[in-house]
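Objective 1b: paired records.
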Amino acid sequence: MSKHQVDSDGFRIVPFKRFSKNKQTKIPCIDSKFEEQEIIDVSKAIKRIQSAVDDLRASDYWKHVIESVSTVLSSRKLKTIVCFGLGHIGECNISRYQLALLLSLKDSLNCSDVLVHDPVFFKSECTILDNLGLQVIAENTEAGYVISKQDPTLLYLPHCPKQLTNNFLWSNWGPELENCILICNSFASLVENHPKRILKETVPFIAKISSFVSEIILENNFVYTDIFNDTSIHHFPSITLEKLDKDFWIKGDKPNYENTEEFITSLMVEKLNI
């Protein structure tokens, strides 16, 4: 077995010669899943996270987020929050503040059922999340989470590849999307910056639903502008979805992604780690 170059975040560096001899991408090391690759002081990390929560909740950005989510929910009670792709919360400042938003939503919306997953989590980071009252999903479903058909679910994908969002939409493709609030990279920005043909080929479910989603663009006015940039709240009003015919909801097979550097599937991880 050849030796692989691993970066400080626990990712293996892989050159992709198809695009450029100097181009590299990162994939999670197969042996780094919930392993301990660096020592993290759990208590110190939790204090830093709590400090990030205090910073966030004092900001105008947070006020806009919670007001917007509360408006979308109206009188409904949020059942579950699910988050994919937080990254290394123990040491990364961006991940820490993205977690702070998740914790703030949990507390403000009084939601006890909060699930998180990232294949790069260290064991100590799982301990941190557990201590903070979050449930770590062990299996990498690549955002293939099925929401409740009766109660609202909030899905949080902080700067995740668009393929994860596409997977989530495929898993829940149907009028039940009215029960979903999705916080992720802006659909409007994605549609504006990519040709329709490319979107239909690469992320067909985002492309198809984008005309029927209501989007609340969050002004990027947090003190650290690289944390929540291009982030929006998306929801799917029932009054809009009810107008769509049955053929619209035919979803076909699970999406398959080939020749992409942006999104590395778990199957690709297994092959690339051999």
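Objective 1b, second protein:
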Amino acid sequence: MKFLVILSLLVCSCYATTPTPLVIWHGMGDSCCNPLSMGSIIRLVEGQIPGIYTLSLKIGDTTTQDIMNGFLKPIPEQITMACEQIKADPNLANGFNAMGFSQGGQFLRAVAQQCDGIKMHNLISVGGQHQGVFGFPKCPNDLTFCDTLRDMLNKYAYNPTIQDHLVQAEYWHDPEHEDVYKSSNIFLPDLNNDVTVNEVYKQRLMSLNKFVMVKFTSDTMVQPIASEWFGFYAPGQAETVQSLQESDLYKNDQLGLKAMDQNEQLVFLATDGDHLQFTNEWFITNIIPYLQ
């Protein structure tokens, strides 16, 4: 009888465990509260993990501001706003998992590396561009000003005014002019320890349990697709792509990724689809285990 009572208590204890909270950051052209995008993801997660608390980051006071800030507010300011939201939320005080979609992937990595006083367990990057992009082929939702943005990036990405007022310029990575990229880009070279090694960034990233990167093998938005797995064009040209493991970033272990890889903290997932296109079944099988 005692054995049955103890077993019953253990079972009840397991089911009573509160799920690890989840922080989500949407991608370019999207918002925190779109019922068809982030709302759909939240419903999917809640259906698989009953009782989970989810915070979908909103950068701005309104949904419209959130969308436009994804294009126009300097990334460092966005990271500060996200950090403040997370630290102010008592539901996240004991730690959380984080999942970023498209540019939200590298933004949440910036939160992991730059935000004091938080505990991020697993980071899931869904189509994030961790070595940046060198191409701007299309925007979501047929936004009409994308042709203008594309032209500005191709010609003026590292102009100080563009850097201060166009988010996508801040992860524009020109492999043919690495010196200009490192000296003039205000966000990504610092985040990736490309110029100097910030040991705080490195140690915070290495403190993650898992860093999961999802690549879309038929992606038509991200150039090069390898950036979703932290790969990029080999320096000096824009044709040959090298993997993360072939890069100096990895070989010199300036961000801790080599050590994380050897410790099985890096997870590389792929799905056959265009940008952010996946099935619920794929998500449940491949992503939900890292959110529990």
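The CA atoms of residues 138 and 147 lie 8 Å apart. The beta strands are 22-25, 54-56, 96-101, 120-126, 210-216, 232-233, 241-242, 266-271.
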